[in-house]
Amino acid sequence: MTSEKRYPFLLGIFAVVVVGILAIGQFFVPNGNYGSEVVQLYYFSTIKNAMVVEEASLVAEKDISNQDKVDELINLLYKGPTSKQLQGIRQVDVVTQLENNVVSVNFDKIYETLEVTEQMMIRASFVYTLTNLPFVNGVEFFVNNVALTNKNGALIGIMDRENIGISALNPNPPTNSQLVTLYFKRKNSDELAPEVREIKVNKDVPLEEYIIEELVKGPTSADLETTFPSDITILDIKTLENVTQVDFTSNMQFPELSTAEGEKLFVYSIVNSLTELSKIQQVSFLVGGEKQSNSLGTIDFNLLFERNETLIAR
After folding, report:
1. Which of 140, 153, 156 is closest to 107 using CA atoms?
2. Three-state DSSP class for residue 104
3. pLDDT in tens, the chain (314 residues)
4. CA dist., res. 129 & res. 136, Å (int)
5. SS3 breakdown of the chain: % helix, strand, coil, rounded to 5?
6. CB atoms < 10 A from the CB of 279, how many?
7. Residue 8: in which H helix or E strand, if any?
8. For residues 186 and 268, what is the distance between their CA atoms, to the nearest angstrom?
9. Is 117 helix (H, G, I), strand (E, B) or coil?
């Protein structure tokens, strides 16, 4: 083959290789997406009376701007929490502008038709979520291009976590004290031990919800250990006809539950704590909203679980 004929041939091969590389790049990075980033979204928990974080994945392009990141974060926030124990927020059309580390949020006029608690819930979620970004120090709110004012007509101005004020958000604030008995793992053993705790409750919130929340917090005694994985998410808790159903996150691959004993203590710390209430006789479990046999390992989660006194230390 002469040199005159070889060069077009080589150029043709080169062109095919380049096109192939570009095609592979498009395959692995669809629509120009560079990758995903874990972000934190904040919603209000009526049980904890606090803003609680949920993690989500933000799929972004390589050169996403800070302004675009703010808007994408709000879109994720509007999708609502995974856990049913958290309060989602009403979706209201917004236009945002990031300038000098402050996000200006301009709500559509529909915002003014919402209940005051709904308005406060939206503002709190926005402030907590957006100020978690390293380039945002505060959030300023507008409605239909008019700066937001309080009930006395004074400008609210730039808000952060210090002045957002979430104490009035809870429609069911704790009003009474209640003693509950919780079961945790006794250190250096395969037994459960009780811990009596006084908690603040509201009569309109089922006591079993408070019990699960206290179990998640862990024991106060140095002789006890939690049986709960650190990043477990409770999706729902409800009781019907003496059976309480507890629904957990669908991602249950936790090292704490990798052994049969660890799994058993996890299950019966919940069952024994809930059955301290006379109205609860059995406990059932869902994982990601579904029944899944052996979803955590050796235990069949299609069963109904009753109190197990043999695991309680004497």
Report:
1. 140
2. strand
3. 544 555 555 455 544 444 444 443 443 344 444 567 889 999 988 777 788 889 888 887 767 899 999 999 999 999 999 887 788 999 999 999 999 999 999 999 999 999 888 898 899 999 999 999 999 999 999 999 999 987 777 888 999 988 887 665 666 666 788 999 999 999 999 999 999 999 988 887 889 989 998 998 899 999 999 988 766 778 889 999 999 999 887 555 555 566 778 888 989 999 999 999 999 999 998 887 777 655 455 777 778 999 999 999 88
4. 10
5. 30, 30, 40
6. 13
7. helix 3-28
8. 13
9. helix
Q: How far is 20 from 25, CA to CA, in rounded Å? A: 9
Tokens (6 digits) for 196: 């009596």
Supply 164's token pair. 């957002």
Phi, psi of 58 (to 5 degrees): -100, 110
Cα 111 to Cα 150, 164, 256, 271: the distances in Å are 14, 17, 45, 43
Q: Which of 178, 259, 273 is nearest to 224 (CA)?
A: 273
Q: Which residues pair with 312 in a beta bridge?
A: 192
Tokens matching residue 281: 């006789």
Distance in angstroms (rounded) separating the CA atoms of residues 259 and 249: 19
Kindly give the residue spans of alpha helices, DSSP state H, lying in 133-181.
Answer: none
With b for 16 or more beta-carbon neighbours within 10 A and e for fewer, the 20-40 pattern comes to eeeeeeeeeeeeeeeeeeebe
What's the length of the chain? 314
Amino acid identity, residue 41? L
CA 230/CA 63 separation, integer angstroms: 34
Please name the amino acid found at residue 64: I
Distances (CA, A) of 84 to 43, 172, 244, 248: 11, 16, 15, 10
Site of tokens 């990043």 = 231
Residue 299: DSSP 8-state: S
State the Cα angle at 65 between 61 and 71, rounded to 5°.
Answer: 90
Cα 26 to Cα 21, 23, 29, 290: the distances in Å are 9, 5, 5, 36
Give the count of beta carbons closer than 10 Å to the beta carbon of residue 127: 27
Q: pTM (2 decimals)?
A: 0.59
